[in-house]
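Q: Hi! First time asking for a complex rather than a single chain. Here are the components, and I think there are two in total. Is that enough to go on?
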Amino acid sequence: MTRSMRFSDPHIEMAHGAGGKASRRLIEGLLAPILFDKPSEPLGDAALLLLNGTALAITTDSFVVKPLSFPGGSIGELAVNGTVNDLAVSAARAEALVVTYVLEAGLATAILEAETRALARAAKCAGVVIAGGDTKVVEYGKADQMYVTTCGIGRPIDGVVISPSSVCPGDKIILSGPIGDHGITILLARGELDLEADLRSDTRPVLPLVEALARASGPGIRWMRDPTRGGVATALNELARDCGLGIHLNEEAIPVRDAVRGACELLGLDPLHIANEGQFLAVMAPESADAGLEALRRAPGGSEARMIGEVRERPQGTVLVGTRYGGSRVVDMLVGDPLPRIC
Amino acid sequence: MTRSMRFSDPHIEMAHGAGGKASRRLIEGLLAPILFDKPSEPLGDAALLLLNGTALAITTDSFVVKPLSFPGGSIGELAVNGTVNDLAVSAARAEALVVTYVLEAGLATAILEAETRALARAAKCAGVVIAGGDTKVVEYGKADQMYVTTCGIGRPIDGVVISPSSVCPGDKIILSGPIGDHGITILLARGELDLEADLRSDTRPVLPLVEALARASGPGIRWMRDPTRGGVATALNELARDCGLGIHLNEEAIPVRDAVRGACELLGLDPLHIANEGQFLAVMAPESADAGLEALRRAPGGSEARMIGEVRERPQGTVLVGTRYGGSRVVDMLVGDPLPRIC
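A: Yes, that's all I need. Here is the structure of the assembled complex.
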């Protein structure tokens, strides 16, 4: 964590919510130093707490995706899966969720009902109870249909202790499946581009996959993250910075569907920066990596998991991608916000 | 709970977020049946859960107050105190909060910083740790500066078990202090009325008062609620309905500041419908009521607590107010939304 970071932008811009560099500056340069007592710990996807001697994990996210529904999902599912997944990659099994709505006056009740049903279905599918909620309404023009916030609490998965500081040179990097489906699906669903593709959001709970990995090689899991806003590149850049090591990716090994690759080429985007809502990254101790990958690939929904790279001493704090032509390039965090409001 | 309630309004309106009758119809007629498995339990301010054998309470609220700051407080404080108080009146001590922001692009960083500091200060004052958060940004015109959502988890206060079903005829009703300060302060702070008054929001954590009451007469506490949106009248109507008894209030005993009474008379509002952010109601077993009130009045910030009424067999499900002239009137839940976005 860059302690000396200072946020001096006079106004908030879309990029500050995009999950990339600008978001980091806002969080680490302004918000975290005010809110958190212990700035020495890297910010993870969920916080671990002791309540009356019982360990639990807690996480929260607001969802402002536009449009509300898209091929493969909608804001209701996203709000459940996003929070369940933040817990899963923090090695915790979601037990209960609470949900709040900020609704724009004039919203069709049919939309609210459909999204509430999507939320309930996704919770059932993820095996999590909805324990409570709150509803606020703001004037027409003061929200975009509806915003949803979920907070989840979970129980730690036994035998899995993750931290960027446990990552070592030689560790292997596993990715659970193809990247970019969610971000590109949202982009196309807005209909602002003259592009069509047979593509669906990958939104799903990754907990069953994380549990399969934990059963096969729990103690070998050093770190996990779901590469949502900012994509795989941003998640791994944060890891590289937090552990002070070099992340080497093998471009050919990273699964990207043709439709995603095509859209990215047309739009000048890198699939490594595109958001995912149903994938996760795991750094594995070298002796556990093969067994872990095998278990993941045998689990339902895990057949496209791949070993995509490894951790080395150098270059410190950097993500390098080896291309199919033998060269390599540095991949930075997401800069700017090419895809606003994707979750 | 009216099981047969059915929500058939085609669109969402401001009143659906006001905490009164329309909110109840939306929640009980549409949202709760879809989201919750156990519609047989009245909806409280927080949910009680067992996690790995440990009891905990969880609650969440979104805050959309307008304006963001006002005499006596601001959205940052409100977001902490509101959640701490929902836990307190559920007989739980807040231990950790998580917070999310939905920010409007163009928001001045100075406002975000001021509200984040207010949030941190309020958390410190309430003795609760901020454990994590999330930030989203939406386009200019898609939010009103900033919305804040907090979720809190707490540890149950030993020896206090509350439920509307334990409320009995003869029980006494205690109110912690003067009502209406918050709602009228917000109304005046908007500057749309040509009214001025020396009034401040009552936003504060009520936990110290709840703890004082619990220490003095924990087992005598049957029910608690913080009368926020919809005010004392709505909170007690919900209780009357949930316990099937009659609530009799003594109008002269209910503390209302002159400025609040004056503004309500001018505007045709009933102070019993105005929101509070630093008060709570407690129903006490008759033999515990005097000792509880005494303890409350001795606690810092509790000197204006009063016994305001009692529970009787009849009229079932109804709140009656005995006026200073000897008559009595039925006080219903809040209908409509005379004061939008007060929290």
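A: The helical segments of chain B are 21-35, 75-88, 109-126, 181-189, 207-217, 231-243, 258-267, 286-298. Let me know if you'd like any chain examined more closely.
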